Amino acid sequence: MKLTTRIRYAVRLMLFLAENWGKGPVFLKDIARDEEISEKYLSLIIIPLRAKDLVNSTRGAHGGYTLARSPGRITVEEIVEAIDGSSGLVDCIGNDAICPRANRCVTRDVWAILGDKISETLESITLEKLIQMKREKTQKNITYAI
């Protein structure tokens, strides 16, 4: 199981916006430069984030993108759902009609349990928490020399 590049880049984009929360709109080109992601690719990723009201956009010379809510009120789960529709592992979990074995399939139950744990984890991590994790990681990598 792997996360798509779109999800990984969307989380990085949102983390960048979270780190700039309250400083005004940010240009996509600045995010692209700092995150080393194609601006064109980010322009496609931002669309579903705006559609799910996770990001606001402002036009004009002083325009750009901002988070629609504070970093403490946006979870990684919301970002994943905005990009992929859901964090479900297999299609039959959300729709019994897809598989005639749904009511007797034990492996489906395993995927459902695993999916619930993944969902719980993603729901527990906010952008604010990611900022804190990044700061801690950065501080650990600082070396002092005298």
Summarize the structure.
The chain is about 55% helix and about 5% strand. The protein has about 150 residues and is mostly helical.
What is the strand and helix layout of this fold?
Elements: H1 5-19, H2 28-35, H3 39-51, E1 55-58, E2 64-67, H4 76-84, H5 106-124, H6 127-140
Antiparallel strand pairs: 1-2
Descriptors:
5% strand, Arc Repressor Mutant, subunit A, 146 residues, mainly alpha, 53% helix, 2 strands, globular
Tell me the structural class: mainly alpha
CATH level 4 superfamily of the domain at 5-86 and 126-132: Winged helix-like DNA-binding domain superfamily/Winged helix DNA-binding domain
Q: Give the SSE order as H and E letters.
A: HHHEEHHH
Return the CATH class of the domain at 5-86 and 126-132. Answer: Mainly Alpha
Question: Based on CA inertia axes, which overall geometry fits?
Answer: globular
| CATH architecture assignment name of the domain at 5-86 and 126-132 | Orthogonal Bundle
Main pleated-sheet profile? 2 strands, antiparallel
Q: What do the pLDDT scores average to? A: 91
What would the CATH topology of the domain at 5-86 and 126-132 be?
Arc Repressor Mutant, subunit A
